[in-house]
Design brief:
Elements lengths: L2 H37 L7 H8 L3 H7 L3 H14 L6 H4 L5 H18 L1 H9 L6 H19 L7 H10 L2 H10 L4 H18 L1
Helix pairs in contact: 1-2, 1-4, 1-7, 2-3, 6-11, 8-9, 9-11
Length: 201
C-alpha cells in the first residue's frame, strides 16, 4: 500500500470515527430530552437539564439542535419508535360500528397505558409544544374519532362529540388511572354511552 493510500484510509477512518461520535452525542441528547419530557414534562425541561442528563455542555446541545423545534421533533420520533402505536387502518377493516368501536378504543387505551408517563405530560404541557406537534396531537385524536365514526353512516353532533370524548387521553386517564376502571370496563362504558346516544336519535 502506498503512502497516499495509507493517508487516505487514515483520513476516512477519522471521518467515520468523528461521524460516529457526532451521532452518539446527538442520540444522548435526544434520549435525555425524552427522559425529561416523560418525568418533568416539556414545560419544565431546560437546555441546562438536557445537557446535564446527556453529559454534555449547553453549547453542545445548541450545536446539535440550534432550533428547539428540531429537538422536539427528534425527541418525538425517538419516543414513537419505541411504542406500539394504535393502528386505525386495522380498525377500518371491521365493518360493524360497535365492534370497530371496541377494537379501536381497546387499542387506543392500551397505547395510553403503555405511554402514560410521556402522554400525561405532553397533553398537560400542550401549550408549550411547537405548533406542529400540538397540531399532530389534535390531528391524531381527530383521526381516531373519524375512523370510529365512519361505520355509523350518519351526521350527528352528539355522536361525534361522544366518540371524540371516548378517544381522548383525558377520558382514559380519568376512567382508568383516577377512578380505577379496567380498560375493558372503560371501553364498555364508552360503548354503552355511544349506543344510547346513537339509538336515541
Amino acid at each position: 500500500m502506498s503512502e497516499h493510500e495509507r493517508s487516505t484510509k487514515a483520513r476516512q477512518y477519522q471521518m467515520r470515527k468523528r461521524a460516529d461520535q457526532v451521532d452518539s452525542t446527538r442520540q444522548r441528547i435526544v434520549e435525555a430530552t425524552s427522559r425529561l419530557h416523560a418525568t418533568v414534562g416539556p414545560a419544565r425541561t431546560t437546555i441546562a437539564g438536557i445537557a446535564e442528563q446527556a453529559g454534555v455542555t449547553r453549547l453542545t446541545v445548541y450545536k446539535h439542535f440550534p432550533d428547539e423545534v428540531d429537538l422536539y421533533n427528534a425527541c418525538s420520533a425517538h419516543w414513537r419508535s419505541n411504542q406500539q402505536l394504535p393502528d386505525p387502518a386495522a380498525w377500518s377493516e371491521v365493518r360493524d360500528p360497535y365492534a370497530r368501536l371496541r377494537i379501536g378504543l381497546s387499542d387506543t387505551y392500551r397505547f395510553y397505558r403503555d405511554g402514560a408517563d410521556m402522554l400525561l405530560r405532553l397533553y398537560r404541557d400542550k401549550d408549550v409544544l411547537p405548533e406542529g406537534l400540538r397540531r399532530s396531537l389534535q390531528d391524531r385524536d381527530g383521526h381516531f374519532r373519524d375512523v370510529l365514526l365512519e361505520p355509523f353512516h350518519r351526521e350527528n353532533q352528539a355522536l361525534r362529540a361522544l366518540v371524540g370524548h371516548a378517544v381522548s387521553f383525558w377520558t382514559w386517564h380519568s376512567l382508568c388511572k383516577l377512578n380505577g376502571l379496567s380498560e375493558d370496563a372503560a371501553v364498555e362504558a364508552m360503548a354503552a354511552m355511544i349506543a344510547a346516544v346513537n339509538n336515541g336519535q
